[in-house]
Every structure is written in C-alpha cells, then in structure tokens.
C-alpha cells in the first residue's frame, strides 16, 4: 500500500514547517548563553503561543481563499476587555472568560456576515472592521492598565512538572478542542473545498456560504483566545495599534511559512502554528548570535520571501498562461 | 399512481431565455428507466441548457418536470441530486486540493460521532471506483495530481456513489482514453441493466450507435425528433439537425485574387499538449478563413497558441513566409508580426468594464501613440474618434465606463481597440456570441472591409451560419486536429455538421467530388 505516500503528501507543508522549526530552535537553544533550560523554553513558548493562536485564527479564513486583516485588532480588543472583566470571584472570572470569547465570536461573525451576505471583499471589509474593533479597544482602555486573575494567569503561563510550559499545553488543548474536530467535520471539509474551487464546491452541493461564514467566526473566536492569553502573560491591557498591526501581518507570514496556501484549499492550522513558532525563533536567533536587532525585520523578510518562492515553484509548469491569473 | 405507465422522468413545454436569446423553446423529453437515451444537436441547439435545468443549475422560465409522474422543481444541484438526478459535468465539479475519497463523498460524507468517518469514506470511494471500473486510482490521491482522463473517471465514480436514478453524461467520454471508454461502456450497460435511466450527450456518433436505445434530436432549442436507435441513418440524423433559422445578412464575398506571395500567416504541424494535433494551414492577405466544428475541439487553444499564450507549443509559425516565434501576446501584437486576437469573453479578456471607452480603446495601442513614454493626447483623440466613426459605436461620449454600453457596442469597442494597432493578422474567437442581429451584420461588413484592405482573418464561430456567410474557406476541427477543409461552395450546413461529427454523409461527399472535378 502506498497510503503513507499520500498521507505524507497531504501533510507535507506542516511537516516541513515542523522540521524547519525544530532545526532553528535547536540552533537557537544550543547557542543560547544560558543553554537549553526550562526557562528559555518557557519564555519562548509564551511568546510563540500568542502568534501561534493568531496565526491559527488566520488559517481558518485563508483556507477558504479569504483573508482576515482584523485578527490582530480582535486580539487587541479582547486583550483590553479581558484586562477589565477577567478578575474577581471565580464565578466572575469564568463569566469574564466567556464574555471575552463571545466578543471574539461576534467580531468574527460580523466579518463573515459582511463578506458573505454583503458580498464585499474580505481585505477591505476586515481593514474597516479591524479599525472599528481597535476603536472600541481604545474606548475600553484609553491608557494601558487593568489586571487579570492571578491564579489563572500563573497557572497558564508557568510550567508543569518544572519543565513543560503550560502555554504549550494550552495551545495543544485549543488545537484538540477546536482545530481537530473542525478539520474532520463536514463543515471543515466544505471550507477546504470552497477554498480550492468554489465553483466545483457549489456544483457538488457543498454549503458554500455557511462554510465561509463559520470560518470567519472560528477566526474571531481563536483570535480572542489569543487576546485572553496576552492578558494572562502581561497582566494588563493595552490598545496598541502597533501590536494589532504587526500581529495581523505576522499571522499571514506564519500561515505562509506553515505551508498554508494563500489561494486557499490546502494547509493546516498545525502547520501555521509551527510557522508562527519559526517566525518567532528567527528573531531570537539574531539575538543569540549577537547581531544587531536592527537586522531582524530584514532577516524575517528574507526567510518569508524564500518560503513564498518555494510555494510557487508549480507556476513554472503551467502551460496555458491564462491559468496564471486564476 | 399510474402503475408502470408513468415514465421515470419527463419534461414538458420547458422554455428558457437568456436575455433576448432563447435557449429552449417548448422542449419535451421523456426518459424511461433501463434505457440509454442519447441527445443530439449541434452547437447552440439547447442541449446544455436542457441538462442544466435537469441538474438544478439553472431554473426554467416555463414548463414542468416530472419524476415518477410527480412534479419536481430543483433549486440547486444538491436538490437534484437528492431526488436522484446526477449529472457528470466535464471536470467541473471536482475540488483539486482534496483527495479522490474526499471528493467522492463531498456532499454528504459518512459520519461517526458527528465527525467524518475516514475509514467508511475510503470504503465508499473504493466501492465507487470499482463500480466505475477505475480500481487503479488510489482513493487518497489528491485530484490535482491526476491526469485529465483519471479525473473524468473519478467524476463518474463520484456520480455513482450518489446512487442516481437518472444519470446524465455530458460529453463525459471526451477526455478519456480509448481503454477507459471501453470500460465506461461496460459500466454504463450494467447500470442500464440495473434499471437506471442514462442520458447520454456526445458528438461521437459511433459511441451513440453502440450505446443508445433511444435518441432525441434538438434544434433551435426544441426537440425535433425522437426515435429508437438504429431507425435512422447518419444521413437522416444530420438532416434533422440542419434547419437553423437564417436571420443574418452577409456582405458578398469578392473573388480572391490569385497571388504568388506567401500567406500572411502559415502554420505547420502545430501541436500542444494533447489538445492540438498536427495542424497545418495558411491564411492569405485578404482572406477570411473560418474555424468550425463542435465547440471545444481545440479551436480556442489554436487561437491562443498563435497569439503566444500557450507554453510548450511545437511546430512552426510563418509570417509572410518567414519563421516567427511568438512567445507572448505583446510579441504577437508587435509591428513585426502585427497580430490581434479578439477574445471570446469580452468582459474578462477584452475590456476593463469600469474604465472609460477611450481608455479601453487606446490600451492595446499605447506604444504607438506615445513618445518616449508620454501619451500624445491629440493623436489619441484623433484615433479614437476615427474608430468610433468607423465602427459606428453608439456611446454617450468617450468618458463613460465601457460597461454602460450595450453588449453589441462593447464588442465593437473590443474590435476597435485591436484595429487601433492596425493588425495584419486578425484572430477572432466567436466574436458575435450574445450580441444583437444588427451589430452582427455590422461586424460581418467590417470583416469584409478589413479583408479588402489586406488583412488576413482567422475566424472561429460556433454559429455555422456565420461560417457559411463570411468565409472563403473553413477548417473543421475534431479532437484537436483539422478533419476537413471546406472551400467555397463546399461550405454548407450539411457539410459543416457532418464533418463536425466526423462522419461522411453521401451529400457532402458528392459535393466535394463535384467541386474538385
């Protein structure tokens, strides 16, 4: 049986991203002045998990051949909200968490409703809604501040058994609870089909609009989990435009590095997570090799460009040039 | 219930119009269980509209559809599938990034605990592939990696997995290898024995002769005859398909002056992929040469190959007798070659709809009206006014968006845009599709005028009437090759249809020998 060959092919992007990440992280850790210690891993994990969550959010939409430029702003908005409401008695904390996640869900649903039922382009729609979400964040937190429940924060950003960062466990839990069932559900399959060929999906009787809508909703939800996590790490909220913007752009970079096609239809959120971790490690690598941090954006850009080039090799095989524009 | 009396599927008085064009007019069709029913008709006879209505892709304007004697209406392809009517389109319904098994179960995957059961899905795929006689296809292979003929087999397997009662095959064998066709025929005959009704649309007469129990011929959107297979000869079938309504006015064809100059455009043994095979012909200055045949036999690819759009084209292209290499549309339009292609779809390939008439007109000719990169406004103005007058484009000034013009006038803008580069070789890809009769007549006049001023014209049309009225010669393509060349009086509807179907009818043959004698 050659099953393994096809299974490997299906997950090639994810596996490549994983391999590259491990390679980079090993180089990073072995050259770290302190060495490969639990502390180094924990710091890296906390930083990486944030981008990983936002990248995962982006993946849902990119798979349907759309794009969500509001993920970073949902992330910031839910951070500001969490810094106000996830505190107090355990019941209030629980309610606060639910409130934060619901907010993310609603943000995603608004994006989805406008894109699908209003038939507007995803880029413009999400730039606009992103600005609105950021505006609300500013109203909530004109100046940085706020607080978050300490117990929960410590529990989710610390370590288990002294070595494993809990942020990674939380990330794995999100993957298991949201991504894996999605990927294996009929609606997740529909999302892939829509991204790959919307016409074929429609002709096959796939619920095209529902699949797209749910992708935006899932994106908003996962971005809000990211925002919640940011609050646990910083124990405060800040309506930072720079943060929102860079997380949005980095999430797209991470998705591409993780082997998700920007044309939709192929890739996996797990790949995007490794793409995010890889992207974070690039920055850290420069640090351990004592390079000026000023080089960081340039270096990240080069890596991204190389990854995109790899992804478009197939264009050289096209025989009808009109196919290039599809 | 009417017992055994009610046929499995019935259509009565179905009408469908697209804009002013009527695609179906009071069409009737009766399909019995356990039969293979062939649908025949030339381009534009209404076959594809008929299928689309049955499969729930478009809705009929009037008329009724009955399944088991009960009236049905389908709002979507999914609804038609649910009722048991499944259509195999030409490679349209497969999702390239998903695996074969994913595609086969795409509309209702087997589930366990709410999630897709991959093992059951794989079993379904294996069964369906086996039923279609395509066990060689791996269920986990991504569809995009499969060859066209394999994809078509997956398409058939996918249809079978839905347990259809009426299965529609629309040119389903056109991409298959001979070995696959033989296998598919075995499958189809078995399905017939199982009591399915099969609707078979094909332009391959020998396939129809082998498979069909019943045949229905469509013409001008109406079913003109229904008969048991074998009751009519090929000749009689062609006779039934002829009879398009003549409504066009064509300018006279002037006699072609003999010339010893080499043809403006000559093609030798042109081939591309498996879509174009060994094509050789020439077009002289002042000549209008038509491309005929049923839709999709390589005519479009031929024009694209000449215009430098396709990669990996083999064979020779000679311009005025000298070999030329045309690597891109911009090379094709350069003054050295002077070629223009009036594309098929004016909305995507010909025009930028929201932009103004003047911008659209001068786009292809920008390099000719500019000096070192700066557009010479006065010269542009002059040329645009000249074109608008020459083609009698009816527009409210030149600054209105071209999308606001009527379809016919939009098409004139596309043609005018290319005339601004003063091409010597003009390729036209079905330029009159969907435009009004008046504008059509103007376009015919224009083609003549251009030929008279020395242009070489290669003209693909799905409308046989146009080929007869406009062309000195017609090359009939079949399966990517030139099957027949019709010259002068040989160009008749009978000859065009029979050579398009790749059959020889007595009338056509007589005519050919009479002319050559």
Q: What does the overall shape of chain A look like?
A: globular
Stretches of chain A where pLDDT is under 50 for at least 5 consecutive residues are: none
Q: In CATH terms, what is the architecture of chain A?
A: Orthogonal Bundle
Instruction: Give, in spatial order, the strands making up the sheet with the most strands of chain B.
Output: 6-9-10-3-11-12
Backbone CA Rg of chain B = 25 Å
The termini of chain B sit apart by: 64 Å
pLDDT under 50 segments of chain B (min length 5)? 507-517
Query: Rg of chain A from C-alpha positions?
Result: 20 Å
In quaternary terms, these chains amount to heterodimer
Distance between the termini of chain A: 35 Å
- Please tally the helical runs of chain A, counting DSSP H or I stretches of 4 or more residues: 14
Determine the mean pLDDT of chain A: 89
What secondary-structure arrangement, pairings included, does this model have?
The complex is a heterodimer of chains A (326) and B (517).
Chain A: H1 3-10, H2 12-31, H3 38-63, H4 71-85, H5 90-117, H6 122-140, H7 150-157, E1 159-160, E2 164-165, H8 166-184, H9 186-196, H10 198-203, H11 208-234, H12 241-257, H13 269-288, H14 296-311
Antiparallel strand pairs in A: 1-2
Chain B: E1 9-18, E2 21-31, E3 35-40, H1 47-54, E4 62-67, E5 70-72, H2 77-83, E6 85-88, H3 100-104, E7 111-112, E8 115-116, H4 118-131, H5 148-161, E9 166-170, H6 178-193, E10 197-201, H7 205-211, E11 214-219, E12 222-228, H8 234-241, E13 265-272, E14 276-283, E15 288-292, H9 299-306, E16 314-319, E17 322-323, H10 329-333, E18 339-342, H11 346-350, H12 357-362, E19 370-371, E20 374-375, H13 377-390, H14 407-419, E21 425-429, H15 437-452, E22 456-460, H16 464-470, E23 473-478, E24 481-487, H17 493-500, H18 506-516
Parallel strand pairs in B: 3-10, 3-11, 6-9, 9-10, 15-22, 15-23, 18-21, 21-22
Antiparallel strand pairs in B: 1-2, 1-4, 4-5, 7-8, 11-12, 13-14, 13-16, 16-17, 19-20, 23-24
Helix pairs in contact in B: 4-5
């Amino acid at each position: 049986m050659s099953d393994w060959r096809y299974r490997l092919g299906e997950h090639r992007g994810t596996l490549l991203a994983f391999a590259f990440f491990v390679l980079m992280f090993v180089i990073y850790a072995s050259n770290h002045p302190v060495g490969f210690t639990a502390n180094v891993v924990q710091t890296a994990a906390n930083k990486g998990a944030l981008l990983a969550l936002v990248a995962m959010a982006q993946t849902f939409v990119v798979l349907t051949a759309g794009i969500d430029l509001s993920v970073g702003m949902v992330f910031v908005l839910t951070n500001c909200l969490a810094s106000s409401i996830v505190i107090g008695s355990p019941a209030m904390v629980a309610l606060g968490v639910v409130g934060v996640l619901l907010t993310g869900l609603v943000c995603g649903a608004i994006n989805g409703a406008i894109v699908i039922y209003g038939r507007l382009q995803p880029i413009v729609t999400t730039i606009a809604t992103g600005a609105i979400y950021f505006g609300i964040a500013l109203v909530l937190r004109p100046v940085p501040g706020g607080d978050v429940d300490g117990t929960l924060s410590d529990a989710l950003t610390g370590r288990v058994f002294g070595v494993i960062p809990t942020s990674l466990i939380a990330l794995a839990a999100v993957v298991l609870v949201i991504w894996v069932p999605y990927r294996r559900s009929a609606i997740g399959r529909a999302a892939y089909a829509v991204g790959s060929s919307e016409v074929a999906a429609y002709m096959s009787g796939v619920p095209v609009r529902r699949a797209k809508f749910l992708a935006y909703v899932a994106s908003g939800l996962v971005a809000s989990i990211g925002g919640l996590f940011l609050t646990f790490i910083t124990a405060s909220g800040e309506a930072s435009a720079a943060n929102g913007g860079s997380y949005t752009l980095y999430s797209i970079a991470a998705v591409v590095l993780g082997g998700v096609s920007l044309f939709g239809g192929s890739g996996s959120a797990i790949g995007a997570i490794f793409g995010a971790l890889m992207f974070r490690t690039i920055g850290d690598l420069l640090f351990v090799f004592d390079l000026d941090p000023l080089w960081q954006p340039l270096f990240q850009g080069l890596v991204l460009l190389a990854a995109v080039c790899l992804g478009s090799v197939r264009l050289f095989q096209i025989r009808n040039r009109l196919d290039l524009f599809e | 219930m009417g017992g055994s009396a009610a046929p499995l599927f019935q259509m009565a008085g179905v009408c469908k119009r697209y804009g002013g064009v009527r695609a179906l007019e009071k069409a009737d069709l009766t399909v019995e269980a356990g039969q293979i029913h062939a649908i025949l008709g030339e381009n534009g006879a209404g076959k594809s509209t008929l299928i689309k209505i049955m499969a729930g892709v478009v809705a009929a304007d009037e008329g009724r559809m009955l399944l088991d004697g009960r009236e049905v209406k389908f709002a979507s392809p999914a609804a038609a599938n649910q009722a048991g009517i499944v259509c195999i389109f030409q490679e349209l319904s497969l999702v390239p990034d998903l695996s074969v098994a994913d595609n086969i179960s795409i509309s209702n995957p087997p589930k366990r605990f709410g999630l897709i059961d991959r093992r059951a899905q794989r079993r379904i795929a294996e069964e369906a592939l086996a039923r279609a006689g395509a066990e060689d296809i791996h269920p986990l292979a991504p569809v995009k990696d499969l060859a066209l003929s394999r994809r078509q087999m997956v398409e058939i397997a996918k249809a079978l997995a839905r347990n259809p009662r009426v299965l529609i095959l629309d040119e389903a064998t056109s991409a298959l290898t001979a070995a696959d066709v033989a296998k598919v025929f075995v499958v189809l005959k078995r399905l017939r024995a199982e009591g399915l009704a099969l609707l078979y649309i094909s332009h391959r007469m020998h396939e129809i002769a082998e498979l069909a129990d019943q045949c229905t011929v469509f013409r001008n959107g109406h079913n003109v005859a229904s008969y048991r297979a074998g009751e009519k000869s090929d000749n009689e079938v062609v006779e039934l398909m002829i009879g398009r309504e003549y409504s066009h006015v064509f300018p006279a064809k002037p006699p072609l002056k003999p010339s010893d100059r080499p043809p403006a455009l000559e093609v030798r043994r042109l081939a591309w992929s498996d879509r174009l095979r060994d094509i050789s012909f020439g077009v002289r200055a002042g000549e209008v040469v038509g491309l005929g045949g049923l839709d999709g036999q390589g005519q479009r690819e031929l024009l694209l190959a000449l215009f430098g759009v396709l990669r990996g084209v083999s064979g020779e292209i000679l311009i005025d007798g000298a070999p030329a290499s045309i690597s891109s549309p911009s090379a094709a339009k350069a003054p050295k070659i002077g070629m223009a292609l009036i594309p098929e779809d004016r909305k995507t390939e010909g025009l930028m709809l929201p932009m103004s008439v003047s911008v659209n007109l001068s786009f292809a000719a920008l390099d000719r009206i500019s000096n070192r990169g700066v557009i010479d406004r006065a010269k542009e103005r002059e040329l645009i006014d000249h074109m608008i007058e020459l083609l009698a484009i009816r527009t409210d000034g030149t600054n209105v968006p071209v999308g606001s013009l009527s379809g016919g006038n939009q098409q004139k803008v596309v043609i005018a845009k290319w005339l601004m580069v003063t091409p010597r070789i003009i390729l036209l890809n079905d330029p009159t599709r969907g435009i009004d009769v008046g504008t059509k007549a103007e376009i015919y006049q224009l083609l003549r005028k251009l030929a008279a001023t020395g242009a070489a014209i290669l003209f693909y049309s799905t409308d046989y009437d146009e080929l007869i009225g406009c062309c000195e010669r017609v090359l009939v393509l079949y399966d990517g090759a030139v099957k027949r060349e019709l010259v002068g009086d040989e160009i008749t509807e009978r000859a065009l249809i029979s050579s398009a179907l790749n059959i020889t009818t007595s009338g056509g043959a007589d005519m050919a020998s009479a002319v050559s004698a």
